[in-house]
Every structure is written in structure tokens, then in C-alpha cells.
Amino acid sequence: MAQKPIQIFRETPPHKSMDFFFLKEEGLQMVQELSGKVWTDYNTHDPGVTILEQLCYALADLGFRTDFSIQDLLNARGKGRRQALNNTFYDASEILPTNPVTIEDYRRLIIDRVNGVKNAWVEPVRDHLQGIKGLYRILLQVSDSARQPQRLQAIKREVYALFAAHRNLCEDLEAIEVLDVDKIIIYTDLDISSDVVAEEVLAEILFKLEEHLTPSIQYHTIDELLEEGYAIEEIFDGPVPVHGIIKKEDLKAMKREVYISKIIEIISDIEGVRRINYFRVEKDGFPVEGDVIRIAEKTYPVLDMDTIDARWKTDAYPIRFQRGSLNYDLDLNTASQLLYSLYARYKKGYQMKMLYNEKDYPSVLKEDDIKRYYSVQNTFPVTYGLSPFGLPNSVRPTRERLGMIKQLRGYLSFFEQMMANYLAQLGNVKKFFSLDSDLDRSYFSQLPENMPEMQYILKGKDNEARLKKLEETVAEFDPFVERRNRLLDHLLARFGERFTTDFLLKVSQYVGYDMSEGEAKSPEHELVNAKLEFLRNYVDISRNRSRGFNYMALYNVIYEQELEWAELFEPLIKQYKEEAERDLIRQQYKQLRENYPLRQHQRDAFSMALNYRDPADVAKEQTKKMLKDLDLPETLTEAIAETNLKFTKKMLELLETEVAGLERRVCLLLNLNQGGNESLVRIFDEETHLEEVDNFHDLIQLESPMLPEGYIDLDVELERLEKIEKGEDPGPAPERLPETLDYRSKFIFRAQDMDELIQDLLANGIFSYNYLALLEERDGEEIYSVYYKGNLDLGCVKIREYSSILAAQVELEKLIKFFARINHQTEGMHVVEHILLRPQAQDRHAFRLVNDQDRPLLESYEFGAFDEQRNLSNQLDLLASKKDNFIIETLEDGESYQVVLQEYNRKIARCPEIFYTQEGAKEQIDDIVAYVYSFKSGAIPLQSNIQFFLEERPNLDVRHDFYSLDMSIILPAWPSRFQNEDFQDLMHAVFTINAPAHININFYYLDINEMKAFEEKYFAWLEERNAVEAQQPELDNMAMEVVAELQKLEQN
Questions:
Q1: What pLDDT score does 971 carry?
Q2: To the nearest 10°, the Cα dihedral for 347, 351, 353, 356?
Q3: How far apart are CA 824 and CA 667, in angstroms?
Q4: 672: which residues sit within 8 A by CB, 6+ positions away?
Q5: Which of left, alpha, beta for 394 (phi over 0: left; psi -120 to 50: alpha)?
Q6: Predicted TM-score of the model (pTM)
Q7: What is the distance between the alpha carbons of residues 789 and 798, in angstroms, rounded to a whole number?
Q8: Which DSSP symbol is given to 768?
């Protein structure tokens, strides 16, 4: 049989744009259609066909480069270091994870993030006394090494902070409880095969029973789960994994009962166990009857059968082995080692940080390789003389021939420029898809620099001038803003998002100037910037769209600073050898903490955030002043001041940025100011100054609208001006009352009150057509008077005087920008979650000793926990039977007295009756001592006459579901857009669409005085809510004041 010859088959190009023969055929067909009457020779030797072939070859090269993968195009290497990607093509580990949504998500978050937690269960609180919905209780199973009191406290604090940082809107944590162990001992005699090792069987029994009682949580890598068939969206469904991915199916429910039959089944299935001769289970020292082992509340089951426990000797270990009739002597140490080897093999007892967050997409391409254009003139046959080497030696370069070559170069330059621009567009595709706000074009161009003798064909002194002219020409035909908007809409649509473009453009006139750049921009530009900002923050606002604000963010910062301050003193202490010198440094540190406790530091930072634009210098100087009396080394003083400055800046940043995810999302969708927890009325405070502009009260003066001076009839005045322009007699100027106000120092506006004026100025004062400058004469001096026509039915009222029209125009422009800045800076909101305002203080108790007539003799000196008060009341029969334990206190008025019972200077109880003479107080002491002493000989104990009662708290009559899944949006009524009813409707719709469906939202618009009153109470509560150690009942009292404000708004 003849051998089949080897052939090389031609590979068909994957796209027509890369197929030279297809392009040539298409080109010839078009040439025939367009010029078939005058051009009939289409053979290869024809120059026209040669030109077509060269262009088709160049087009095929363009097609080849266009076929590069989008990943390579977007990540092509530039000159120098590769820049980070600035687009919306996010990695799966960035875009897919979410803030916890389900109970399982919270469990995975806690187990993964908190060291020392082996398992966690999150339960909704269904038995709250006030019926509040949205509360959770967390139950923790911690490792044995974490059971020390201090470590448990640290774990609780970490879990609390973690939940606060990831909690959803209108949800909160009610309690964290650490589960105790419920110990089980299994006594059994097992008959095993002769071919197994008893220690191995024991290790496997203990391992499998432990897995049954308390299943361990395993961590997995992305590759492991992909191999098991999980989709990438399943792997990253939930919070971002830090140490590994936990499967949802591994999160078992808490065991409330264990079946003995199941334990027997597990033991019987182990290889080598032939028969169970004896079996008994003990719990709490008693045998378990029946098949069910009940697990106590708030505990989890464990085997109390450690192989290295000192209680167990080899012959006394609960599990014994036999081979037939022979007993087997266990080596418990060997069994222990085998057990730990099983742990190491099947359980990941260690946690390793995942490294998938490092974004690295290497590209085989360079930007220059994509954009570089190679002129087609270099590939023409040499006969054409187009290459840099010119005509061949065999051809005489006549003037006519050289002219023809130039004509052909000029003809080809049109095609070359188009192809060079195409490659420039392809090479800049990553810029086109980028989120760079400095991008100012959507069409890119470049010169065909590789084109021979380009300088003789294209105009311009040099390539730089030619390129500039080219870019200017291309820019004339580049509808950049419209194309950029459409591209951003496409990128938004990839995430299922959209902007209400038409409406936002419609109400854009209410915004005024873009104050971030200091100059006006078109509404379309503003919309582009809004979409860019939304996409830049999309990972956060998508992942955390339903997350509430983190009220423990400041606590974490302060706690970090406490540790860092302590670390600053440690090296200083070690420098000294004498213990007395070391004690001095320790005393200085103690004094520092006493003089400037954490709560005070936090209060100062909170105050700075509300009252200073740049509090950095204030924080540093304040720290140095605080340290002045401690006589510390200068280097240490400077280090502490720097630390304080660093953490103060961090706290201020948190105050500005730590807001609910819904608030941030809505602000980005509506292009609103994201002010964080800032005051919306601070700008109107007489003591607050804005950047680059004067204080509001330095610029604006309010006068009564009843003053007639400075008023003109606008229609009459415009009619007079029209006559003057036509050269006609305007007639006498209307008489006005003499002016008594100084119009040269401030703008003088008229209104009933400041609220009314501000609303009018922000709605109408941002438009230049509401101002009119007129030339007037007073006392022989020419002045330009500026008039303002607002919407307060006052006509056209004078507001300022200038000596020149130029000064009037400049100052009016500044005023309009000032009002636009106020509009921008006060377009904010306060999102108040009602559940955070719920009463949270523990009930405080007190006791009362009454006589036989039920008249109170003694009461607790102060309220406290019930157990504490009960212990104090149990001491009354001993303490109150001795006169020496009583004192008489003089009250503040200096004229009345009170009887107090004390023990070692600690005040325990007092008589509720007030006395106006010391004799009366002494008689009362005698009566109390006699009454208490009378119980010593009787059969009835004194405790029978002791009553307990709760501290009364102020209580508001709120609707039954006020705290449950309810929130209020507090908005300012004065910004221009917020006065527009259509915009209000849009804002309400955006909130409703983006908020969780089960949450009720209330909207309230407050004027300046109402906002001041609300913020005073809201910020006081917010400061205490963020405090390192929130004080009770102060926190609840402040919350009730905020609730009272919300109820007032609700009723109105």
C-alpha cells in the first residue's frame, strides 16, 4: 500500500477582515460597480489592482490586530511599569461577593474572620419583650485555648465589631453568648479483629464520634471547589473569604439531642470492630436512659474521654478492647498520637490568607505594538519608487516621474491616515473603556510616521505641529460627551444599572456651578462625571447596598490607638535599669490615660469633625498641651502627638465616609453630595467659614421686607432704559425714600426670616437673569446699583452698590458661585435606622425595707443589677442592727438631713424621709436599728419585709412597630433641587427601588431651624452611640430625644 503523501493545508482565516483574498475580491467587485465603464483591465499587472492588493494586505493586518483578545488589548503594557487597570472589568473575587444576606453568610463571616471561633450560630430574636423585629443573637463555640476570661472578652468584642461592620439596614445585634460544653462519657467493651491495632481503632472511634457531635468547619481553596464542579458564582456567593471558602452544606444546625443508636452505628461501622459486648452512656455523672441524649441549652456536646487525661489509667479507660476472650492493654499515648495525626490529615486546623485578591492579568502585547503603523508604501514593488530607497538604478528619475510618485504618495496618504487612526483607536481601547475622568476624546488619531517622505506631502513644520492639527480636526467631528454617555450606559447595563438620564438633565439647572472645578460645566458633562463616580465605586455600592452604617468604626480606631500608645512607652521603660525609674514611667503613662481617657479623645475628634474643616493642626497642638504637665522626653511627646494626629485623621475620615450603603448608592445615582455624618446647617453657622469664600453672615444681611427703600418697579425701569437706548426722553426718575442702609459692605436681602430667604436665594439666586445692574446718580456721584428679583413677591429690591459695572459683574459672579456651593454642600441627608434608637439599657433594680405598716424605712442608695442589690439586702440584718454603720448627711440646701447606711465608707442604703433637724434623724436611726434588731429573736426573717422594684425610665408612647424594620430619611428643604417636587418624587422612587423590600421608609424635609434642632439631638446620640464605652441610661435618654423629634415629624 502506497504511503499517503504529507500535505500542508491552508488555514482559513477566522474572520473575513483577515482574509486577503476575500478583501481583494470584494474590492474588485466594488471597483467594477463604480468604474466599470472606464476601467476594464483587472489583471494583476494593472497598477490599480496592485494598489488594491497593497491596501487589502494592510487591511488584513488591521483585522489580525483587531482579533487580539480583549484581555490583551485592555492590559497591553505601556512604557515603564504596567499601570493598574482602571475599568469596570472586575475580577470575580471583587465583584461577586456580597455583604452577608442570610444566616449562613453571617456564620461563615464570623468563623472565617475571628480567630479562636470554631463554630457560630446566628439566631433571630423572636421573643423580644417589645416585639422588635430585626434583632439577632450569636452563639459561639470557641476553641479550648480561648476559654480564658480575657480572651473570651476579646473574642466577643471582635465579633460585635465584625457584626456592626457588616450588619444590614434596620438590623442589630442583641446579645453574644459563648456556649459551654456538655460532656458525655461512653463506656463500652469492644471485640476487635486480630488483624487491627486497638490504638488505631480507638483513635478512629474518637475522631468519628467527635465529628458527629461537633462537626468541624473545613476551609477550601478556589481550585478545590472548581474541581468538585462548583461554578465560580457559587464559590463567591456571600462575604469575601479571607482564610478560605466554607461550604454552606458544612454549616450544620446546632445539636439539641444525640441518639445513642447513631453512636452505636458509628462504632460498629469502624473497620476491625466485630461486636459490641457492653455499652453505656453517662452525662452529668448519671447513666442516660433510652435512646436520646438531651443537650442542655446554650451548650454543645463533647466527649469527656481525652486519651491523655490524668483521670484515666490504661485499665480504667471507658473504652476497652478484647480479642475473643483476651483483654487488650491500651497504650493511651500511642492512641493520642494517632488521633492527632487524623486531625492533621482531615482537618485544617490552621488558617492561611487567600491570595486571590492580587489582580494580575499579564498581556503579551505592548501598546506601541498595537498602534504602530507600517506604511503600505514600503511594500509596493520597487518600480513604483515609493520606498525610502526611491526608484531602482535602471529607471531614470525624471522630473515627471518624480512628480507622479509624489502624486501617488498624496493619493495613498488618505488611506494611510485612515488606517493609522484605526490602529490608534484600537491601541487606545483601554482608555476608551477606562473610568479616567481626564479623558477628553472618543476618537483617537496618530500620524502615519512610517510613511516615506511624509514631510513633503503633509503640511506643517514638524510632526508635533502636524499631529496637533490632526487632533484638532478629528475633535471637530468627535461628539465626545454623547459617545461617552452612551458607552457609560453600556457599562452600567452590564451590571443591570441605569441612570434616569433625561430627568437628571432636566433638573440639572437647579445645581448651578460645578464647584469642584470652580467653573461651570454642561449638564451632560456633569452626568458623565456622575456615571464615572458611580462605576468607580460600584464594587462597594453593589456589595454593600443594604448594609447599615458601622456604629463601632470609631471604637475600633480608638482601641488601636490605646495599643499603640502603650507600645510607645514600652521601649522607654526598658531603657531604665532601676525599678524606681521604671515605675515613674509607668506612673506617667497611667497619668496620661487618666488625663486623657479614650472617651475624651473620641469626644474631641467628634467635635473637631463637626466644627473644623482641617482639624489636623488642632489635634496635634491639643495633644502637646495635654502632655505639657507630664514632663515626658521631647521625642516621646512628639511621637504621641503624631500618633494622636494619625488616629484623629482616621476617625474624621470614618465620620465622613462611614454611612449606610443605601445612602451612598442613592447619592451616587442622583449625583448628590456624599457628606457622611456632617452637619447640613454648619454652613449657616456664624462661626463657620467655608474654603475659598467668606462666611455666609459676612456676605449676607437680612432686613425686613416692609422697608420701602431700595425698591424699584422693574417694568417701569426697563421701559425707561428702552427709551434711553432709542434716544427718547425717559421722563423723570421715580422718587424713592432716602436710603439708610450701607449697600457697599454686604448684600442686603429682604425676607420675613432667614429660612425664607435662604430657600429663595438657593432656588433663584443661582440664575444671573434675576439680577439687574443700573447706573444711578447720588449726590453728584455715579454708582451702579444691583437689584434682585426673587420669588418672595417683593418686586425688584436693591441688594448692593458698586463704583463700576466691572466690579458689579465680578462680585455677582462670586455670589452666584457662593449660592451654588451652598446648594452642593447641603444636598445631603441623615439616614436614621429606628432599631438603633431602641432602649438598650439593662433593667436596674433597688430594694426597700418596710415596717409592719408598710412604711419605707430604708431604700437602696443607688440602682444596680438585681444580683448586686439582692446581695446588699441580705446584709441589712447585720449592718442595720448597729448604730455605728449609720451617718447623717447634710443635703445641698444646707438645712435638711438624710440618714445613710454604709459599710467601710461605701453607701448602701438611705432613708427616703428628709429631716430638718439632726435630732429627728438620730431618732430615725434608733427606730431602724430597733426594728431590725427585733427580727433576730423572731421566727420571721427580715427578708420578708424587703421589697424589690425597678428604676422608672422615661418612656415615649411610640407605635408598636416603630423600632421594627423602619427608617427615616431626614432631608434639608432648602437646596434648589430638593425644592423641586419632581426631583423629590424621583429621590423617593430611587430609595424605594434600591432599599430592601421589607423596610418601611419615611421622608421628612426640614427647614434650617428644624434641622438645627434635630441635628443637636441626633449628633449627641450619634457620639454616644459611637463611644468606646456607651454610658447608660444616657444613651437611651439621648435616643429617646431623637425618637421624640421623629414622632413630631411623623405627626406633622
A1: 94
A2: 10
A3: 12
A4: 666, 827, 828, 829
A5: alpha
A6: 0.78
A7: 9
A8: G
Grid coordinates in use for 128?
Answer: 423580644
For residues 835 and 132, what is the distance between their CA atoms, to the nearest angstrom?
8
CA distance 844 to 953: 10
Residues 994/959, Cβ–Cβ less than 8 Å: no
**Nearest CA to 36 among 48, 45, 44, 24?**
48
Q: From the CB of residue 7, how many other CB atoms can be counted at a distance below 10 Å?
A: 6
Return the pLDDT at 796.
76
**E strands along 156-216, which residues?**
172-178, 180-192
Predicted pLDDT at 692: 38
Topology of 850-949 in CATH?
PH-domain like (2.30.29)
8-state DSSP, 217: P
Q: Any bridge partners for residue 749, and if so which?
A: 702
Residue 118's H or E segment, with its range, is strand 117-124
Q: Number of helices (H) and strands (E), helices first, in the chain?
A: 35, 26
**How far apart, in whole angstroms, are the C-alpha atoms of residue 248 and residue 488?**
36
Q: Which helix (H) or strand (E) holds 109?
A: helix 103-113
Please give, one letter per residue, the 3-state secondary structure of 290-354. CCEEECCCCEEEEECCCCCCCCCCHHHCCEEEEECCEEECCCHHHHHHHHHHHHHHHCCCCCCCC
321 burial level (CB within 10 Å; 0-12, 13-18, 19+)? buried
The rounded distance, in Å, linking the Cα atoms of 155 and 149 is 10
> What are the two backbone dihedrals, phi and then psi, of residue 874, each rounded to the nearest 5 degrees?
-70, -15
Q: Write the DSSP assignment of 237-263 as a string of letters.
A: SSSPPSS-B--GGG-PPPPSEEEHHHH
CB 102 within 8 A of CB 200: no
Phi-psi region of 228 (alpha: psi -120 to 50; beta: other; left: phi over 0): alpha
Question: What is the C-alpha separation between 153 and 155, in angstroms, rounded?
Answer: 5
Give the Cα separation of 148 and 177 in Å (integer). 15
Distance between CA atoms of 39 and 1041, rounded to whole angstroms? 92
Q: Give residue for cell 483617537.
A: 444
Q: Which residues of the chain have pLDDT under 50?
A: 82, 349, 357-358, 513-518, 687-694, 704, 706-712, 737-738
Q: How far apart are CA 545 and CA 694, in angstroms?
A: 38
Domain map (residue ranges) of the chain: 16-67, 181-215+252-346, 553-658, 682-825, 834-839+956-1051, 850-949
Buried b (16+ CB within 10 A) or exposed e, 696-711: beebbbbbebeeeebb
Q: Is cis: bond before 633, omega within 30 of 0?
A: no
Helix (H, G, I), strand (E, B) or coil at 828: coil
Go through the chain and tell me how many residues it has: 1052
Positive or negative CA dihedral for 30, 35, 37, 38?
Answer: negative
- Report pLDDT digits (tens) over 273-318: 888 889 999 888 888 888 988 988 889 998 887 655 555 665 678 8
d(CA 338, CA 9): 63
Q: How far apart are CA 414 and CA 668, in angstroms?
A: 45
Q: What is the pLDDT of residue 127?
A: 80
Phi/psi-derived region of residue 676, left when phi > 0, alpha when psi is between -120 and 50, beta in every other case: left
Q: Tell me: the pLDDT tens digits for 307-321? A: 555 556 656 788 888
Q: Say if CB 727 and CB 784 are below 8 A apart.
A: no
Q: Which residues contact 34 (CB under 8 A, 6 or more apart)?
A: none
| Cell digits of residue 613 | 474643616
Write b or e for each residue in 274-298: b if 16 or more Cβ atoms lie within 10 A of its Cβ, otherwise e.
eeeeeeebebeeeebeeeebebeee
Cell of 627: 502632655
Q: In whole angstroms, what is the distance from residue 137 CA to residue 121 CA?
A: 8
